[in-house]
Amino acid sequence: MNDFDILNDGVEPDSPGEKSESTSMILHDWLQCIVFAIVLGVSAFIFVGRHMGVIGDSMLPTLFNNDRVIISNLFYSPRNGDVVIFDVVGDTPFVKRVIAVAGQTIDINTATGEVLVDGVAIYEPYISELTARGMAMEGPATVPEGYVFVLGDNRGNSTDSRNVDIGFVDTRYILGRVLFVIFPGHDNTGQRDWRRIGTLRGDIAGSY
d(Cα 196, Cα 198) in Å, to the nearest integer? Predict the structure, then answer.
């Protein structure tokens, strides 16, 4: 046994070719990890959650203009009380509250400001004012299969299902349910209320 064998415990060093192959395998493993992370991140963004901005005051006092929110459509099926964002062809996405789902009958008593689902006035602690305007809506009307009826919480300043240009909303155009606020917009005094970060206030999904 020569000195070389003693110093290296009987194991000869890798040849240059073996070292190159080993480095290549390590780089390949790292590349796989990076690709997997990118795919996972994109999938999470598309299917689990994505952030969007609120434009306008139609959802006051629940959501403010320029609020940044997280939405998700993963395994999502609209329920009464959900706040959702949906696409309107040729327009900016709208954010409204689901008031009635397929098969339910919707009506608005403009004399009392009450909204009725299946003939029963619903409890609406989230609105800024009573629903005094029915706009073009003629009720009672039954929500068709695959659609929902939506209203803004700011009933006096909202373009929603009462408007002929919106009407019943096709659920295929719903981008997702608003889960929580991640960055608050300015209130009417120009201030940001940082306490509003978190889950929606007044979100009563499935309560009626």
Answer: 6
Pair 82, 97: CB distance under 8 Å:
yes
Catalytic choice (43, 96, 161, 207): 96
Strands (E), the chain: 50-53, 68-72, 83-86, 94-101, 105-109, 114-117, 120-121, 141-142, 147-151, 169-170, 174-183, 198-199
Look up 58 and say whether it is catalytic. yes
- Write the pLDDT tens digit of every residue in 149-183: 999 999 999 999 999 889 999 999 999 999 989 99
| Among 75, 76, 94, 77, CA closest to 85 | 94
First to last CA, the chain: 87
Which pair of tokens denotes residue 60? 């006051």
**Catalytic site residue from 58, 72, 128, 161:** 58
- Is 19 tagged catalytic? no
What is the per-residue pLDDT across 25-57, written as a single tens digit (0 to 9) for each? 777 767 777 765 555 454 455 555 688 889 999
**Per the confidence metrics, is the pTM higher than 0.85?**
no
> Residue 192 — φ and ψ, nearest 5°?
-105, 130
